């Protein structure tokens, strides 16, 4: 019986296998950004590092809010647009609408502030105070309030200390400060938490709906 033999080309096994660069599970959705790349998003200048760390757990699961509906949030004292100290306890005894926003003069934040301004009489009729908070300093708040004739208080949370203590979630993996509104009853208890980064005017609609039911 004649024997047969099989001769393989002179290649090592690894060279016969296709090579593939490992990809991150999010690589189809996230752009590659260099150290020097910068962009403006809703009036905010964002800087990115060359590496992006994704937590092993889901992004949604990594956010733990410290202030929830039915609770009383941690107290604070911050400076307003006139440089005066204002404490959260000052507003106890009447409903309060307190909204965190990313920055003065950004397009979306300006729309939101002007929407609160245009409905301010409705808030007054409901007996509620309106207060805005961002990381801008008092002088920035003063110029912002003057330019757009804002009739309510703006507080300066420099360093975002209160934002962090309250657990206000950020957007775009934490690169953009969150836009979140809290409605308090006259006893200082949270009755509504509304988060919507890209439809700033809806914060006014949702808060007015709740105030009418208090």
Short overview:
With 214 residues, the protein is α+β, with helices and mostly antiparallel strands. It has six helices and nine strands, in the order H-E-E-E-E-E-H-H-E-H-E-H-E-E-H. The strands form two sheets. Strands 4-3-7-6-5-8-9 form a seven-stranded mixed beta sheet.
Overview of the structural elements:
By secondary structure, the protein is of the alpha+beta class. Helix content is 22%, strand content 19%. The protein has 6 helices and 9 strands; from the N terminus they run αβββββααβαβαββα. The protein has helices at 13-16, 107-118, 120-125, 138-147, 161-166, 202-211; strands at residues 38-41, 44-47, 77-80, 85-87, 96-100, 129-134, 153-156, 180-184, 190-195. Strands 4-3-7-6-5-8-9 form a 7-stranded mixed β-sheet. A hairpin with a 5-residue loop joins strand 8 and strand 9 (190-195). The longest helix is centred in the middle third of the chain and has 12 residues, at 107-118. It is globular, with a radius of gyration of 26 Å. The N and C termini lie far apart (98 Å). The model is unreliable at 1-64 (pLDDT under 50).
